[in-house]
Each structure stands twice: as C-alpha cells, then as structure tokens.
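chain below, 417 aa
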Amino acid sequence: MRCDQAGDGRAAARGDGRREFLRCAAGVAGVAAAGGLGGEAVAADRPAAGRRDGREDLPDRVPFHGHHQAGVLTPQQLFAGFVGFDVLAENRDGLVELFQKLTHRSRVLTGGVKPRDERVSSERPTPDSLTITLGVGASLFDDRYGLSGHKPRHLKAMPAFPDDRLEPSRCHGDLSLQICGEHPDAIVHVLRDLARETDGLLRPRWRTDAFLNPSRPSGARRNLLGFKDGIVNPETESAREMDRLMWVTPPCGEPDWALGGCYQVLRLIRFHVEKWDKVPLRRQEKIFGRHKASGAPLDGEHETDAPDYRHDPHGRIVPLDSHIRLANPRTHKTDDSRFLRRSYNYDQGFDHTGRMDLGLVFCGYQQDPERQFATVQRRLEHEPLSRFITPIGGGYFFVLPGVRDEDDWFGSHLLKP
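prediction:
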C-alpha cells in the first residue's frame, strides 16, 4: 500500500444561518468542474461504478452505518446535490451538537425520506437509495474549535491551477455535503430537513444540483460535451486496491481519528458549449482521444478498450496532447496517481449574457490529493480541451470515517474530549 509524506481556506464572515441556508436550499448557487473529463484520471481495467442501464446493483436502502461512509463506493444514483458550508457554532460544544444533529438526521433520512408537507405526511417514507456524505474542509481546523493540531496532513484550501478561474463565493467551506438519490426532490427534502435541524449552526457558501444522463445507446453515460464520461475506475471491489488508492490506513501517517476516511476533491467546471459545438467532429475526437459515438479510444473499437500507447509513441493515432493520454499515460510511474471518480452533470439555464450555463460537478475520491488529483491536473495544464472548459469553484475536503453504530456519530473520534 502507498502513503507518501506530504494556507487553509478560512470561511467567510458568519451571518443568519437558517435564512441563508433556506435561501441556498431553494436556489442553486454553484456550477461545474475539471480534471479527467473522460474518466482517464482514474483509468484502470473495469467499468466505472454506477455505469448501468438497469438499477439492480443499487439497493433501495443504502446502509448508513459502516467503517466507511456511504456515497463513496456506492453505485451512482441518478441525482446529486453538493453543498459547501460555513460552520456558525460558537464553540466546540456547539460543533459537537452540530455533528450529532447531522448524524441523527442522516441516519433517519437514509432510512426513508418523508416530506414535511402535512398533506402527504401520512405516506410511507421512501429510502430512494439515499446517501448523505459529510466532509470537512481545512478552514474547520483553525483556532475556533481547538482542532488545529488534528488536521489531516494533506488537507488544505484547493489551489488555483493555471487554467482555473475560481470564484471565491463558489469555493471551499468548513464542511461539504454530498446528497445522492434516485429523484431530485429527495435532495431538496434533505436540505430542508437539515436547515430546520441545524438552525443557527450552519450557513451555505455554495450549492449545485446535478444529474446523470441516460446511457445512449448503452455503456458509459455522456457528459454535456457529448462524450462518454468516466469510462473506467479503480477496482472498488478490491480491498487491497482501495487501501492503496482510497482509504486512509495506518501507514499513511494521518491522525488516528482519520483512519477509514478519504480525501474528496470537488471541482465546479463550466463548459463553453457554444464554442465547442463549432468544432468539427474529428477535431473533437482528437482533443479527447476517443471516438464520440462509441467511446472507444482512437486506436480501439469498444469503450472499454485500453489505448496502446506503446505502439503509438509519437501520437499519430491518439495525439500526445489528447485528454485521455495526458490524464493517464498508463505507465508504471503514473499508476499511483489514479483515483475514484464519481462526477455529475449540471444545467443552470442561461447566464446574464444569454449563454448556456452547463458543465460538470467533478467529484474525485482518493488517499492523497497532491499525489493523485494534483499530479493529474498538472499534466492537463493548457491541454487543448482547456479552451472549452473553465473550472470556477469547488474545494478539497476530508470525508470523515463512517458512523459505526447507533451510538456513534460523525467526527466522534475527532471531537472526543
């Protein structure tokens, strides 16, 4: 297993928590993301989790308790909401109260979402394959709660990479919340429930709602640039692979409380679709390194075919600056930079100039964002695709270890006396 040695983003000024929470829960305040749009940042030898036409591999109720949080290895649900929060708790006791409330409501809600509307409150709650995944940002480990000596060693504010145009109002946060379900109203019900239960303890910084496109005609789902997205991922069913690339284990040198957690990279990426749609098909395919119709690499026939770079050393078939080749050169040296990708599309209508506001919520899970995500991102600097996408927000977060049982709660080992 691999664990190498290694400015926190401070949350914005505090305010009226519940009013801001509800305002954000009622409308979308975020957008989309970057890094490995074709899924090559995590390329391995199997189809990505959640890549299915039927729903048989996704249980109606996803267990809440476990060594790891749900929503990381869970097959992807059809809809997701991502929110970055500032914590408003006045002291450490208030933070404990917040985490315990989030745990209690998450435990209840994942057992079955029940609308608050009195007219339908008698209806049977529906689990909706709901998962609620909680992460902590670097800014939580400042001097407010006495946590500065307990920060995960690779956790920091997400830096701006050369092709980024990050908007401060859409970046970072003390907490991240990923809510996934089979219907979009389940995301809203969860946010409304948490707004009520955490009144005065949380305030949203940014939010984006997202979705998966249907498989057309089959296989991997397409992003809003029209290409099949996230074709392959690491072997999530291999405990050895996950301990090497995903979960924090004792050799990683992380704080004891962090064992069983992992790092989450969220990137909000906007697609410049008007510009992209003017690019000829063949040029689009060379930019990605894949056939648009089949998803196969340019030297292959099927989407799951691995490109053979050894027989194309000069990039005559798959260009050297293509997205898939830069993101994953498929060498022994770059093997440790792979990570699990669990991304979604977003559509937020039109902006003030009349251009379509479409993109990707890039979500990557890994053991070390510097060794994995940042390494891949540096290979992608100024790639041809960068002229058609702009990362505008997101953040680095640490996904807390799972809640073990009914007596446990999020962050219990971090916040124990």
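The chain has a mean pLDDT of 88. The two ends are 32 Å apart (CA to CA).
thats it, cya
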